[in-house]
Design goal:
It is built from 11 helices and 15 strands. With about 325 residues, it is an alpha/beta fold. β12, α8 and β13 form a beta-alpha-beta unit. The protein starts with a strand and ends with a strand. The model has no long low-confidence stretch (mean pLDDT about 95).
Length: about 325
């Protein structure tokens, strides 16, 4: 089968589109013919050797897939050959390939209306976000939720899930087009966080109180301003640093303001608490069937153009999700 192979840590340009052998199927496993695979910012970090997780080499990136079950192990009863499924890899990845072998507990039956591209765009951003908002952020109906980088894949997932959970969502995005997109996906307000006074707008929208939960995949200057938007007993969720700068904060500030700063390591929690993580993802699929969430696939590339797809993510020029398709 064809796959994208990382043989050495370094620039994404060195990834190899190559023929590799398919792995034998164990009794508890499922072989899926991959139709689409989601592309995420951490994929590039792992290839470059800059992520906390350094997979053993050679390694095939990709942690979320949509496809059709080709074969099942002798002990598998939950799915059968021919089923349309969403697959969720562990730290071993494997999604950027024509086939993937997964534990049977890591595949989900697709809602009838969900496309393979939508399936491949779901597990990472919606899984990360629901864990962040539910388990870490304790988001409650009626609370104010500020979403930074809200037009990206993880940002739009947060806007949609925040609304589904009953929050009042303020989306922060850098262009009029991106802000319009956020409003289309359920944000109550959309603000320009490139303006120097944007935190005053947040305070005005919340009646001077500030936001209860902030969701930050951006870091950098956005963090410096967003922490000043927090309400008392607020929860600031640190997702990542797509801006490229890891910010600092003096600890007296959360003390005086009375808010928490919480790190969100979804991959570690997911693999260590898989039954709970699986329940979260099933809840996301239920939201999909109810019409509360809809993954936005804004870019689709053939598998062999994975490097180009990954560059589109790291350039921060995309909205929604980018996927690879195999044929």
């Amino acid at each position: 089968m064809k796959a994208i192979v990382c043989r050495n840590f370094g620039p994404v340009d060195q990834l190899d589109y190559a023929e590799i052998p398919a792995r034998p199927l164990l009794p508890h496993e499922v072989r899926v013919r991959v139709h689409a695979a989601g592309v995420n910012f951490p994929d590039s970090l792992k290839v470059e050797g800059l992520h906390q997780i350094k997979p053993p080499l050679p390694w095939v990136p990709g942690s979320e897939t949509g496809g059709v079950v080709e074969a099942v192990g002798a002990d598998v009863q939950s799915v059968k050959a021919g089923d349309r499924v969403m697959g969720v890899s562990d730290a071993r990845g494997g999604g950027f390939a024509e086939q993937i072998v997964l534990d049977a507990t890591r595949v989900f039956a697709l809602p009838s209306a969900m496309t393979f591209e939508e399936a491949a765009a779901t597990p990472v951003v919606y899984g990360t976000t629901l864990y962040a908002l539910k388990q870490r952020g304790r988001l409650a109906p009626g609370e104010w939720l500020l979403v930074l980088g809200a037009a990206g894949g993880v940002g739009l997932a947060t806007v949609q899930l925040g609304k589904a959970m009953g929050a009042r969502v303020i989306a922060a995005a850098s262009t009029p087009e991106k802000r319009a997109l956020c409003l289309e996906h359920g944000a109550e307000y959309a603000i320009d966080y490139t303006r120097p006074d944007w935190r005053e707008e947040v305070k005005a929208l919340t009646g001077g109180r500030g936001v209860d939960v902030a969701y930050d995949p951006v870091g950098g200057d956005a963090f410096d301003e967003a922490v000043r938007c927090m309400a008392f007993d607020g929860r600031y969720l640190v997702i990542g640093f797509t801006s490229g700068r890891i910010p600092d904060i003096k600890v007296n500030y959360p003390l005086v303001k009375g808010f928490d700063i919480l790190g969100v390591r979804y991959d570690v929690w997911r693999d260590g608490s898989w039954p709970e993580a699986r329940a979260n993802l099933q809840q996301v699929l239920d939201y999909y069937e109810q019409g509360s969430v809809r993954p936005l696939v804004s870019g689709s590339y053939p598998l062999g153009r994975a490097v180009e797809a990954m560059r589109s993510i790291t350039s921060r020029g995309t909205t929604g999700k980018v996927v690879l398709v195999t044929g």
